[in-house]
Amino acid sequence: PILYSYFRSSCSWRVRIALALKGISYDLVPVNLIKDGGQQFSAEFKALNPMQQVPALKIDGIILSQSLAIINYLEETHPNPRLLPQDPKKRAQVRMIADHIASGIQPLQNLSVLKQMGEKKMEWAQNCIASGFQALEQILQHTAGRYCVGDEVSVADLCLVPQVANAERFKVDMGPYPTITRINKALLELEAFKISHPSRQPDTPAELRA
């Protein structure tokens, strides 16, 4: 497999965690979203992913984009360890939380949106994340065990950790979100989350390396 990734991309990080958890080795091709006016806009990369976003994964003779679609493919082709619970209710809760983050929070504060915001980009990002986290904190109080849904790592957790990192980068006050904070801390102790961390990628700038 070949993963086209950017060290700081939260969507790429989700996929890196899934690959690490499932023990799938891959080659990484960095796509710098800032350098050269954004390498994702090159004709070469557009041929791989017409949406001009990372991640993209070349695997088993196909090219997949969209982090949750990639993770679902990995789940179906490499079922162990499972990232979707067997219980239908828990599985629905996992998907709900993943969608809440992947559709309801992350796109509103990603690079392409922030570029449109000019001087207000920090305030905009903080507001988008805070309103999403208020809802998420409430949901997790009903679903969480050690992790987002019960005590098994799931797709929901793969979405949570990169989003908390974004929140910290945009200086969101995490005080009102004790459940999110507790789960994030527990997940960051797991090896798959450590090795996939933005501070430990081949394309991480020297000043941001762990």
CATH class of the largest domain: Mainly Alpha
Averaged pLDDT: 96
Class based on secondary structure composition and strand pairing: alpha+beta
| Helix count, DSSP H or I runs of 4 or more residues | 9
H and E string: EHEHEEHHHHHHH
CA(first)-CA(last) distance: 26 Å
Relative strand content = 5-15%
**In the CATH hierarchy, what is the architecture of the largest domain at level 2?**
Up-down Bundle
CATH topology of the largest domain: Glutathione S-transferase Yfyf (Class Pi), Chain A, domain 2
What helical percentage do the residues reach? 40-55%
Low-pLDDT ranges: none
Major sheet size, sense and barrel closure: 4 strands, mixed
Tally of separate domains? 2
- Order of neighbouring strands in the sheet with most strands: 2-1-3-4
Tell me, what's the shape?
globular
> Got a strand count?
4
Radius of gyration equals 16 Å
Domain GST N-terminal: 1-82
Main location: cytoplasm
Domain GST C-terminal: 87-206
Cofactor: glutathione
Describe the structure.
50% of the residues lie in helices and 8% in strands. It has two domains: 2-81, Glutaredoxin (3-Layer(aba) Sandwich), CATH 3.40.30; 88-193, Glutathione S-transferase Yfyf (Class Pi), Chain A, domain 2 (Up-down Bundle), CATH 1.20.1050.10. It is an alpha+beta fold and 210 residues long. It contains nine helices and four strands; from the N terminus they run βαβαββααααααα. The two termini are 26 Å apart. Strands 2-1-3-4 form a four-stranded mixed beta sheet, with helices on one face.
